[in-house]
Write a structure and sequence with these properties.
296 residues, 4-stranded parallel β-sheet, alpha/beta, globular, 2 domains, 10 strands
Length: 296
């Protein structure tokens, strides 16, 4: 079985009076265009994981996430596309959400576990699948070295070198992969990581552990209260950006990332003439779980 998807991820320049005033150029790597559901870093992280599952002759994918997890949905879709069956172990009490609906539609079976039990993912895998030799464990978010390997390939697709490269971070796997790609190409691009959860110092260490000797800027002030937390300021920013560019971003990852970039530009963090690349990590269907929070 061939596990691969064509990468259609162009660069798109974003124009704004602020950028003209500060003499900054901002481009977005449109990884959200890779696939409608296996999009962005979700595909990049799953690519080599799925290839390993095939090599090990596993037929059933088991992974983890919350009720609005883009990774759950991506894994469900990938399983259907590439001939696997799948199970998602979901954090918290049984609920309905657009993500849950779509994951089920792609054939994923769901098991809801209380939040305390959910912390022991290896234990849950053994509990439910210890006697199933066809089951293959995929960590939450596709985190780990195989996921980072897939993300590193993004750098090879860039037609030019950027002064700064930005990505959001939930597990740190995407950032670690991009850092690895920068290092392997010996580029002078400076990596910037914007964690989307509160108290993310551990995440900085996790990235450093995955990519030894790496250097990157870690902007931890843009979490807006924590993972999947938001406020009116962020929602207004997302609304204004989306209806002025035609590019959908979400409140969990890309909205916070882009807000951070705009804020840093406004505060003269970058030298004039700087060229910045933001990595759009996809997963925009996650915004559907927050639709009622927008004032449209």
């Amino acid at each position: 079985m061939m596990i691969d998807l064509p990468i259609n991820s162009p660069l798109e320049e974003i124009f704004n009076p602020l950028f003209k005033l500060k003499e900054i150029e901002l481009f977005i790597k449109r990884d959200d265009m890779i696939h409608p559901f296996i999009s962005g870093n979700k595909w990049r992280k799953l690519k080599y994981i799925l290839q390993e599952a095939v090599a090990l002759q596993k037929q059933h994918l088991v992974t983890f996430g919350g009720a609005h997890s883009n990774h759950l949905l991506a894994t469900a879709c990938a399983a259907a596309k590439f001939g696997f069956s799948s199970t998602g172990i979901v954090r918290g009490e049984p609920v309905d959400s657009p993500t849950i609906f779509l994951s089920k539609l792609f054939g994923m079976q769901l098991i809801f576990e209380d939040r305390e039990s959910y912390l022991d993912k290896n234990g849950l895998f053994k509990k439910h699948f210890n006697n199933n030799p066809n089951a293959y464990f995929i960590d939450e978010g596709g985190s780990g070295s195989l996921g980072a390997k897939g993300c590193s390939e993004l750098i090879e697709e860039l037609p030019e070198v950027f002064d700064h490269i930005f990505c959001a971070a939930g597990t740190g796997t995407t950032a670690a992969g991009i850092l690895s790609g920068i290092s392997s190409k010996s580029l002078n691009s400076k990596m910037h990581v914007v964690p989307v959860l509160k108290g993310a110092d551990f995440l900085k260490q996790d990235i450093e552990n995955l990519v030894k000797g790496s250097f990157f800027e870690f902007h931890s002030a843009y979490h807006f209260g924590g993972y999947a937390k938001t406020n009116d300021e962020l929602l207004r920013f997302i609304k204004d950006f989306t209806n002025s560019t035609g590019i959908l971003i979400d409140p969990v990852y890309t909205g916070k990332l882009l807000f951070a970039i705009y804020d840093l530009i406004s505060k003269d963090y970058f030298a004039r003439g700087t060229r910045i690349l933001m990595v759009h990590t996809g997963g925009t269907t996650g915004i559907l779980g927050m639709a009622d929070r927008f004032k449209l």
